[in-house]
Amino acid sequence: MSFWNTIGSGLREIWAYKFRSLLTMLGIILGVSALVAMSALVKGMENGTREALVAAGGLEKIRVEPQYELPAHQRHLLDQAPGLTMEDVYALESGAPLVHQVTPAVEQYRYREPMVATYKGKTVEPFLVMGSWPAVLEINEHVIEHGRMFADLDEEQASSVCVIGTGIRDELFGEPEGDETGVVPIGETIYVNGLPFTIIGMFERYESESAKKEREFRRLNPQPAEAAGPVRSRGWGGNRGGGHFIFRMKNNTILIPLSTMMLKFRGMNGISSTGEAAPVRLSNLNMKISRIEDLEPAIQQVRNVLMMTHKGIEDFTFRTQEDWAEEIQNVIRNARLSGGVIAGICLIVGGIGIMNIMLASISERVREIGIRKSVGATNLDVFVQILVESTVISVLGGIAGIGTSYALVGLIASFTPTDNSPVVTLNAVSIAFAFSVGVGILAGLYPAIRASRLHPIQALRYD
Amino acid sequence: MALLELRNVSKIYTLGGEVIRALDDVSLDIDGGEFVSVIGPSGSGKSTLMHILGCLDSPTHGTIQLDGQMIHSASAKQLAHIRNQKIGFVFQFFNLLPKMNVLQNVELPMIYAGISGARRRERAMEMLKMVGLENRARHRPSQLSGGQQQRVAIARGLVNDPRILFADEPTGNLDSHTGEAILELFRELSTKGRTIILVTHDPEIAAVTSRRIEIRDGKIASQVDPRLAGLDRVATAPVAG
Q1: Which of A186, A359, B157, B175 is the most exposed place for a label (fewest CB within 10 A)?
Q2: ipTM of the shown complex
Q3: What pLDDT does A234 receive?
Q4: Of A1, A2, A374, the CB nearest to B89
């Protein structure tokens, strides 16, 4: 019996029992669509976090932060812990060749030491006011869209200049509707904690790819204005656009020269016992490595240098994006695993459904099998026929499942955050399809063996 | 060499510890072109004989040669091939596939013979014409009368041009008038040189054939064989066990 004949007869059999076949397929449909939707969801998550990871400085960034909790054997030295100072920066610049662009930063976080920026009666609490060197631009993956970054000269003169994110602009100068560039407040003077700063530059708007697309879409298809009502801040947790926290944080940043920060906001850091002004403590040191493979030795090198400048007191800690990347990988692996298990169970249940129906079907068709054998069907012919029927059911179910999964993904996308919007990959689709076919074959195996082993006479006599 | 040769064929079942000799040491020759009836009451072993001759079952002992091929020791696959190529069946209950139309039913043996679609259709229509049902090709079996269904079954039985056509109580499910017509069809086929083995419990039906073999308790009880007793007179010959 030729292959196409067998498939034709399988399809005919399925068509003869449309409703029953549909119910049988439903298990496979659900399994496949669950598998595809799950993987699309995880993929979306992965994309979202990867973008955020790059926005935060990529894997090549090493950040050194002070650690106030000393190792147990150094607890008694806590009062001598120097903290991160400019001394460390100079030491690293000359003593750690594996890292470059060592950039100190003094940061004022909104949740720790709230600062207020005002402009003509409007106020905003920036998420982060950061004093740093111009190189911070590259280290933190900032991009200037308008104006300029402050230069070494500004640093030297401790000029009262600042570079702001679009989030700050939106709050102080208004968010332009429908205009791509919006207000460019270069040259305006804002007051940060009462001190005047001239805006010399503004970053581009940081957002995830999908958020960008969505904004683009909104711009091209203006939505009707929302119902008027009291305007209120929804806090930082609300959706201010831009998706991931990292993007919002970067958009709500005011960047000023490090020397300006030290002079104007961190000037009174206490006087040491010797009468000298105590060195200003830095919030963190950021640096980059050239090659990702150098990460381990570079950290070791930085640690060695810092141990020297800190007289052996380990009051600092390293933070690399590697940990974060690893964490992302873990989360994704877990999500994928649990989703895969669920989808797998769905498929197994679907397979059991097929097997059940095929067993019922062959016991209904014992006589047919007898007739086929009496006119010359071999055991193999019967085996293949039943196997093909179950495979055809599962293949149809698989195809329908892939169709359903697109609908399901669309549904999920409508209520997940934009930067995690699910992505259906060809890989997932083909794996799900292959699984559905495999399940169909496995589920058909036992019924097919049973059918092929029927004795022709007993089968013919069966009522 | 006869078309079909049985030598000391036995079929023994054990049913609930009891040994049943459905066929007991049967020897038999059937030549090509013969129209033979096998008669016997139910349980006599005539169906078992037909199943073994029709390659649906294998004997416990003995040897069978069909068209030069030893079938008592053939594998299941070989038997299926022989059934497909050399044997046609007509059953009491027609045994057509209800979900297929008449044409597809007639085509079925050719599908397993691996004949291409166009050739299949042509040949099936030819056979339907022979049994006078060419204008019912697209009907379902359930839309046909019993006699018509049996004609379809005969067309199916003959579609691969087998050496032997087995008919198991072919009129058992038909009224006497239609039964007559079916028997007439068999007779016609026989005159064209078909080898037909008709299994029945009814001596009246068996009377249409020139040669009659009576089975009782798994043995050949008596034979009416024109070849054994001159051409004009049929004789009853006891068969040596």
Answers
A1: B175
A2: 0.89
A3: 53
A4: A374
